[in-house]
Amino acid sequence: TLSPFTLIKSFFSSSENFIPNIIQFSYARGALIGAIKSIVVHFNINKEITVWTPSFISDTIIYLLEAYNIKVSHYPITNNLEPDWDKLSFIQFKEEDIFLLVHYFGFEMATQETIEFCKTKKLHMIEDCAHSIVPKIETGGIGTHGDAAIFGLRKALPVPHGGFLLMRNIKFSATNNVSMVSGIYRSPLKMIFQWLLCKLKVKYVLNLKPIKKFVMTEFPENYSLFDFQENMDSISRKITNTVNINEISEKRISNYLYYKNNLSIISKIFIPISFKIKNKQTSPWMFFFFYEQAEELINFLRKNGIPAADWPTLHPSILGNPDYDFENYLYKRSVALPVHQDVNQKDLDFIINKIKEFDMQLR
User: Fold this and answer.
1) More confident residue, 42 or 278
2) Is the pLDDT assigned to residue 206 strictly greater than 70?
3) Buried b (16+ CB within 10 A) or exposed e, 289-312
4) CA 348 distance to own-chain centroid
5) Is the pTM above the cut of 0.70?
6) Distance (Å, rounded) from C-alpha 277 to C-alpha 281?
7) Mean pLDDT in the chain?
8) 320-336: b or e for each residue (b if 16 or more CB lie within 10 Å)?
9) Any idea of the CA torsion for 178, 182, 188, 191, to the nearest 10 degrees?
10) What is the Cα Rg of the chain in Å?
11) How big is the CA angle at 30 (ends 28 and 33), to the nearest 5 degrees?
12) What is the DSSP secondary structure assignment for residue 28, as one 8-state letter?
C-alpha cells in the first residue's frame, strides 16, 4: 500500500540514488545481469563461464540467464537453506565461474564460509540480496563481501518497482537488452486505494485462489522476459527517498519475531536456524517455514482471507524433476506469511490463531 501523504511528500524529494555509488534498475534481475557482464569485462574473461545458483530459487533467475545464453548450474543446499559444503566439495568448478550466494528472505547466509570457498576455488562471488532492503550500506554488512551484490526494493517498499546493483572495485559495464517488453509496474493509484481501504477497516480480500504445488502457475506474458535494463523510474526513486527505511525494517523485524515466538512452539513447524536477525542488516521479506501439510495449511489460511503463499516458483527444469528430489521436498513443505509493515498486532494474532487451529485439527 502507498499512503497519499507519502506520495505527496515524495514530490519534494530528490530522485537521486538514496545510497551512494549504486546503479538502479526497475528490477533486481537487471542488476544481476549487469553484475555478471561487469565481472566478465573487468576481469577480461574470454571463456564460457557458468553461473552457479541453488536450485531452490525463483524461476525468474534461470529464465534471465537462459535469455542471455549464460550457462547455469546448481549447487546443493541444506534444509537451513545454506550451501551444503560437504556435497560442494565433490563438484568440479572452473576457475572464474560465478557463485551466487542467496541471502534468503533478507537474512544473511553463510557469508564467511562462501568467501573462503570462492577464494579456494578461484570463483567470483555475487551476493543475491534481492529480498533485502537496507537504509545504508554498512562496512562488512550484507552485500559488501562479493564482487557485486543485487538488492530489491519493491519487495518491501511502497514503490511501483525498483532494485539496485552494488559493486566492489569494479567498473559497471552495461549489457545488451534482449527484450523491449515493459516490466510489471504497480500503479501508485491502486496502492493508495488499498491503503485507504485498510485505514477505513474495510475488509479487502483479494481473490485468493487455492494454490496447487507442483502445478505450473500461469503468469502474465511478461513475467519471465522483459526489459531487464529498464531504469528505476522517478516516482519510485522519490518514494524511496521519502519513506523511513529504518522504521520499516524495525516493524518487519518485530512482526517476524512475533511470529517466531508464537509459532516455533508448534512441533510440526521447522524454521531454518540460519534465519538470524542482524542489527540494521536484516529486514525480513516474509515469515518462511517448513510444514509437512504445507499446501493444505496455505489453502486453509487463504480461505480465511490470509495471503499465505508458497515459495519459490520453481523453474520447469526443476519442478518435479527426480534429480532435484531434495529441493522439491523443500518446496512441498514451504509456507510463507506476510510480515509487511502494514500488518498490525490484531492481524498477527488472527493469523497465528488460525495456524494453531489448523494444526490442532490434524492431531
Assistant:
1) 42
2) no
3) bbbebbbebbbbbbeeebbbbbbb
4) 22
5) yes
6) 8
7) 93
8) eeeebebbbebbbbbbb
9) -80
10) 20
11) 110
12) H
Q: Which three cell numbers stand for residue 90?
A: 565433490
For range 142-159, the mean pLDDT: 94
CB-based contacts of 30: which residues, under 8 Å, 6+ apart? 163, 165, 228, 229, 230
Taking each helix axis as running N to C, give the angle between helix 345-361 and helix 245-263, from 0 to 180 degrees, rounded to the nearest 10.
30
Cell 574470454 belongs to 46
Three-state secondary-structure class, residue 338? strand
* 3-state secondary structure at position 41: helix
Amino acid letter for position 57: I
3-state secondary structure 117-164: HHHHHCCEEEEEECCCCCCCCCCCCCCCCCCEEEEECCCCCCCCCCEE
Reported as a pLDDT band with limits 50, 70 and 90, residue 343 is: very high
Average pLDDT over residues 14-32: 93
106 sits in the region (left: phi over 0; alpha: psi -120 to 50; else beta) called left
Q: For 320, how many CA atoms within 13 A lie in the half-sphere containing its CB?
A: 6
**Nearest residue to 318 (alpha-carbon basis) of 73, 104, 68:** 73
